[in-house]
Known about the structure:
Distance between the termini: 21 Å
Number of strands: 3
Amino acid sequence: GAHIMEKELLHGTLEVLILKTLSWGPMHGFGIGRWIEQLSGNELRIEEGSLYPALYRIEKKGWVDASWGVSDNQRRAKYYRLTTEGRRQLHKNADTWSTFAHAVARVLGAKQQPAS
């Protein structure tokens, strides 16, 4: 089974959400945060103080490449692109996450206590 610590869970969750967002194409940090919020029906609010450290972590792991470009409003912005390894991690982590979320839902949805 998945042994997941709280900090790992929070970090890992954000990382996989970022990878998923980048699976549609390169994007700058602000755009990534906004897409995650929109896709989640505004249930997930991503603070910049969490987003940028997460991008830094996955860049160091080699899951994304970063390069400077110009955003829609002509400002310099760092664009992130999913690497081959990042795509592999997305599929792996998405499975782990679905299993984990399903397990949590089963516990929370339980109508009776387990037989001892």
